[in-house]
Specification:
This protein has about 140 residues and is an alpha+beta fold. It has 2 domains: about 1-40, no CATH class; about 50-140, Arc Repressor Mutant, subunit A (Orthogonal Bundle), CATH 1.10.10.10. The protein contains 5 helices and 8 strands, in the order βαβαββββαααββ. It has a 4-stranded antiparallel beta sheet with strand order 3-4-5-6, with helices on one face. Strand 3 (about 50) and strand 4 form a beta hairpin.
Length: about 140
């Protein structure tokens, strides 16, 4: 919601009426763009639970389990799993994961994705669940 009404009462009412975000005038254009990008990163609809290779994920509750044990994962690690659900049936390059899980300010030459995938692999244990597909990125499961 973009409006001149800027009191706390106005913002609470606007959000209560169903606005995903609320920005009062005057505003900085950079903030508007950042808010639009943040909303655009949200999933269009709740993703379904999925499981593969003794790994299951509940995106709504934001929890993952391996062999019935709850995993202690960071927000970014969970987001990587959400992007790599087996139902998606595709693979992502590290650049795509960087854009979806992090934001536009992330350095495209960073090793952040590889480091996060490495931590995630260690936490997921054996047998390995995340495969590296040469020149295609990563996928979950043996598809």
């Amino acid at each position: 919601m973009l409006t001149a009404a800027s009191t706390v009462k106005d913002r609470v009412e606007g959000l209560g009426l169903g606005a995903d975000d609320y920005l009062a005038k005057p505003f900085e254009f950079a903030e508007l763009v950042a808010r639009i990008r943040a909303v655009a990163r949200r999933p269009a609809s709740p993703q379904p639970n999925w499981s593969t290779e003794n790994l299951s994920l509940d995106p709504l509750l934001r929890v993952a389990f391996r062999a019935g044990l709850r995993l202690s994962l960071t927000r970014k690690e969970l987001a990587v799993l959400e992007c790599r659900s087996p139902q998606r049936g595709n693979q992502s390059l590290p650049k795509e994961l960087l854009e979806r899980v992090w934001d536009e300010a992330a350095d495209p030459f960073t090793k952040t994705v590889a480091v996060t995938i490495g931590r995630l692999r260690r936490k997921l244990g054996h047998p390995p669940v995340i495969q590296t597909v040469r020149e295609s990125g990563y996928r979950i499961g043996g598809q």
